[in-house]
Amino acid sequence: MKSKKNVGKILAKGGKWFVLWTLAVFELFPLVQLLFNSFRPDQEIKAQPLGLPRQWTLANYPETWVMGGYGKAFLNSLWISFWTILITVFLISIAAYALAKIDFKGKNFFTSYFLFGMAIPSFAYLIPTYYIFNRIGLGNSLTGLIITYTAHNIPFKLLLLRTFLLGIPRELEESAKVDGCTEFQAFLHVTLPLAKSIVMTVAVLIFLSCWNEFTFASTFITSTSLRPVSTRFVKFTTEYSSDFAKIFTSGVISIAPIVALYLLLQDSFIEGLTSGSVKG
Fold first, then answer.
1. Quick one: 255 exposed, middle or buried, by C-beta within 10 A (0-12, 13-18, 19+)?
2. pTM above 0.70, yes or no
């Protein structure tokens, strides 16, 4: 009887790992092939789109970097991401603390308000935002994108952070207040350090959102010198659509910072998400 149970457990475990590895292969294969194709000449890719490079070349990278104007585009994306992360994290950390720890009139309304904000698709307010920003002088500017991205990131990240803070005992802040701390000092010196993992996760999610966003960036920004990285790939799929090597290389250049950031912060990222999922 025990042997049958053991066999069942082994089969279940084997089936689980088979599914996981199958999904991993399906997820990773396009990325690996994208990387390989960035080191292949254009003619080789056209003759055989899939496979290892027969003739390795690094020439695609400097040519694509210059043709796509990636130097300026990277600076623009980093500038947008930095200020969006800074402003959003500052605002939502205070708001999440208030919604999780402080009782005040209208608390449930504001929680529902931000929850409702998550349900509104971004294209629904694309045209009104574009019209308003052009009227007030924020069209075709990085400042306009920063404001838009900040507003777009607030609802989900705020509720994610609030969920985590609900799991931190209120007695910790109360003890700090007994020792002479104000509410803000208790938040700053007690709650925020305990929420470091989820704050890091939120910052990474905001960065990914800013780096990958295309619709608002391509609509709002008309000057080539202000365009972020997310808009440069289109240049190769339109103007240089016949040069497959440059298209694949452009894809690698665009996603490289995201992959590098995830590999660097994957432990903190996963810790923040899993911790936030079981709080509250």
1. middle
2. yes
